[in-house]
Write a structure and sequence with these properties.
The chain is mainly β. The chain has one domain (about 1-119). About 0% of the residues lie in helices and about 60% in strands. It has no helices and 11 strands. The chain has strands spanning about 1-10, 15-20, 20-30, 40-50, 55, 65-70, 70-80, 85, 90, 105-110, 115-119. A 5-stranded mixed beta barrel has the order 1-2-3-11-4. The radius of gyration is 14 Å and the shape is globular.
Length: about 120
C-alpha cells in the first residue's frame, strides 16, 4: 500500500495520482468508496500486461519509474517478494510470481498499464 493523492480523474476511470513528488497516469481498477480530487488515500499500485512480460536484472541499483506513453511505464527497483517491486513505493502484480528467484535483486521491466486499487 502507498499513500496516494488524487490530482484528477474522470468517469472513464482515467486518473492522475501523486506519490511523493511523482505524478503518474493510471487506470482505476478498484474503488470501494467515492473518491475526491485533492484527497489522499491508501491504495495499491499494480499493473496489467497486454502481451509478453519480461523482467530482467537492472544494470544499476536504483529506484525509478519513467512514463513511456498513455499508461505505460518502465520501472526499476528492488524485488522485495514474489509479487512486489519497490520503485520508491510498492508496485504489486501476479505477473511477478514466475520471477521469485529474483527476490532481493534490482530488476527492470516495461508495464503496459499502471492500475490503482483503492481498497
Amino acid at each position: 500500500m502507498a499513500k496516494i493523492k488524487i490530482i484528477s480523474f474522470d468517469d472513464t476511470d482515467d486518473i492522475i495520482i501523486q506519490i511523493g513528488d511523482k505524478k503518474l497516469e493510471a487506470m482505476i481498477s478498484i474503488a470501494l468508496y467515492n473518491l475526491k480530487e485533492g484527497e489522499e488515500y491508501d491504495a495499491e499500485l499494480t499493473f496489467y500486461m497486454f502481451g509478453d512480460f519480461k523482467l530482467q536484472l537492472a544494470a544499476n541499483e536504483r529506484y525509478d519509474i519513467t512514463h513511456i506513453e498513455n499508461y505505460s511505464y518502465t520501472i526499476t527497483g528492488k524485488m522485495i517478494d514474489s509479487e512486489t517491486i519497490d520503485v520508491g513505493f510498492p508496485i504489486t502484480s501476479e505477473w511477478l510470481a514466475d520471477y521469485s528467484y529474483l527476490v532481493g535483486q534490482y530488476v527492470t521491466c516495461k508495464l503496459d498499464r499502471l492500475e490503482v486499487n483503492f481498497l
